[in-house]
Structure formats: structure tokens, C-alpha cells
From TrEMBL:
InterPro entries: NAD(P)-bd_dom, NAD(P)-bd_dom_sf, Polyketide_Oxido-like. Residues 7-200 form the NAD(P)-binding domain. This is Putative NAD(P)-binding protein. GO terms for molecular function: biliverdin reductase [NAD(P)H] activity; riboflavin reductase (NADPH) activity. PANTHER family: FLAVIN REDUCTASE (NADPH).
């Protein structure tokens, strides 16, 4: 397949690119600085930013699907760290993709977004409501609403806490309550799930909560 990856230089996006290429897909990555990405067979680098509608439209020509693994930039890796900006970056990206019309898109969201908030553990609710996470979650909620109102064939992947571990675990795919999700999920497993959703045309118009145990 011909796939466009937004967020290819991020920790989850790097896994999407590597796994996609390993499966024989042609990957286009829209990146601000192509020098940060190692050139490889099957990988096309386009300089630009996903918040620019023209850049997204140009990069998305003739692709079968768009995979989005972007993040709200923070001053440190701590989830509650101060945001670099409170601008709704993910929402802008969602609007840019939605403007393309009936496009297949798999978007990395987060557990606790939308209707999954009601079933989130109390400490997660506290973090979302009382720490700097509220800015990222406001953006995620807005982005999800944008996709829901669009003509895109969206999948909104609500991942639990993202881990850099490579220890093999069992993937749990369900809702916020059934089966009961684990607390964490490997970034590499998230990448694999997102690629599988594209390859199998699965979870269209769904918001799967994914975790591991």
C-alpha cells in the first residue's frame, strides 16, 4: 500500500515507518526536517508541516491511507509537563485531513478522550482535569469531533499509557471497560495495530481502546 505518515520522527511514528517498510509498503513521510530521517528504500521524504493544509494535500496525493502519530509538544517527556504551546495542533491536522474528503485515516488518540473519560481510573481523570494534560486532551477531544463530522473513514486509536519497552505482551483491543484494559501499551504494538487497521480495513468509524497485559 501507499501510506502517508504524519509524525514519522516521533517515537511511535518511527515504529510505523519501520514496520510499514518491513511489510513492503511504500511510505511517504511529511516532516519538517528530512535530515532527521534515515533514507531507506521505499521511503519518500517530503519537507513540510502537517498543520499546513497545502503541505498535507500535496503529500496525500495517490496514498491509500494516512496514519497520524503526532503529539502535543511539551517541555519534557513527563505527561504533565508544561506544553510548548496551547494551540490545538491535532485539531488543525484533523481539519487538514478532513478537507481531503473520503480518505482512510488512522489517528493515534488516547484513552480518556471522548466517551472513554467516564470509565477512566480516578487518577487519570485527576491528571486530565487538574494538570497540563488538560490542554492535550482538549486538543484530542476537538480532533476526534472533527473526524466524526468529516467524510473520512476514520479510526481513532485510544491508546493507554505509551511505553518504550520491547518486552512481548498480549495486546488487548476493546472499549474503555470491556475487556478491562491494562495500564500501558508498547509504542511498537500501537504502530503494529495502526498498520493492521489499514491493511485489513478494520475498525472503521470505531474508537478502539488498546493496551497490553
Amino acid at each position: 500500500m501507499n501510506l502517508l505518515v504524519l509524525g514519522a520522527t516521533g517515537r511511535t511514528g518511527q515504529h510505523i515507518v519501520a514496520q510499514g517498510l518491513a511489510k513492503g509498503h511504500a511510505i511517504t513521510a511529511l516532516v519538517r526536517d528530512p535530515s532527521k530521517v534515515t533514507p531507506r528504500d521505499g521511503l519518500t521524504l517530503i519537507k513540510g508541516t502537517p498543520t499546513d493544509a497545502a503541505d498535507v494535500a500535496g503529500a496525500a496525493q495517490n496514498v491509500d491511507a494516512i496514519l497520524v502519530a503526532l503529539n502535543n509538544p511539551r517541555t519534557s517527556d513527563a505527561p504533565w509537563a508544561k506544553p510548548v504551546s496551547t494551540e490545538k495542533i491535532l485539531t488543525q491536522v484533523a481539519e487538514n485531513i478532513s478537507a481531503l474528503g473520503k480518505q482512510r485515516v488512522v489517528f493515534l488518540s488516547a484513552a480518556g478522550v471522548g466517551d472513554s473519560f467516564a470509565s477512566a481510573p480516578w487518577f487519570m481523570k485527576f491528571m486530565i482535569n487538574r494538570t497540563n494534560l488538560k490542554y492535550a486532551y482538549a486538543d484530542h477531544n476537538s480532533a476526534e469531533k472533527t473526524f466524526r463530522a468529516s467524510q473520512t473513514d476514520w479510526t481513532l486509536v485510544r491508546a493507554m499509557g505509551l511505553s518504550n519497552s520491547e518486552k512481548e505482551k498480549t495486546l488487548i483491543v476493546g472499549t474503555a471497560t470491556s475487556p478491562k484494559p491494562g495500564m500501558m501499551v508498547r509504542r511498537s504494538a500501537v504502530a503494529g495495530f495502526m498498520l493492521s487497521a489499514v491493511e485489513n480495513a478494520s475498525h472503521i468509524k470505531e474508537t478502539p481502546v488498546i493496551s497490553e497485559k
